[in-house]
Amino acid sequence: MASSGAQGLRRCAGRAVLCCVVLTVCGAAAAGQIRYSIPEEMQKGSFVGNIAQDLGLEAKELSERGVSVVSRGRTQYFALNVKSGHLITAERLDREQLCGRAEKCLLNCEVIVQHDMKMYGVEVEIVDINDNAPNFQTGEMELKVSETTAPGSRFPFRNVQDPDLGTNSLQSYKLSSNKHFSLKVQTASGGFKYPELVLEKPLDREQQAAHDLILTATDGGDPVRSGTARIHVVVLDANDNAPVFSQPLYRVSVRENVPVGTTVATVKATDLDEGVSGDVIYSSQITDQASQVFQLDSRTGDIMVFRNLDYEESTLYEMEVRAHDGGGLFDTSKVVISVSDLNDNVPEIRITSLLSSVPEDSPPGTVIALLIVQDQDAGENGAVTCTIPDHVPFRLQKSVDNYYSLVTARDLDREQVADYNVTVTARDRGAPPLWSATTIAVQVSDVNDNAPAFSQAAYSVWVSENNARGASVFCARAADADWGDNARVTYWLAEGELQGAPLSSWLSVQAESGAVHALRALDYEQVREIRFAVEARDGGSPPLRSSASVTLLVLDQNDNRPEILYPAAPRDGSTGVELAPRSAEPGYLVTKVVAVDADAGQNAWLSYELLKASEPGLFALGVHTGEIRTARALGDRDALKHRLVVGVRDNGQPPLSASVTLTVAVADSIPELLADLGSLAAPAAEAQASLTLYLVVAVAAVSCLFLAFLIVLLGLRLRRWRQAQLLGSAGGALAGVPVSHFAGIDGVRAFLHSYSQDVSLTAGSRKSQWSFGPPSSAGTLARPPAGQGKEPAPVGKDSKVCEADQAALQVSRRFCILLPLFTFWCFCLSDHC
Question: Which candidate, 123, 251, 555, 643, has a CA 20 to 30 Å from the CA of 454?
Answer without folding.
Answer: 555
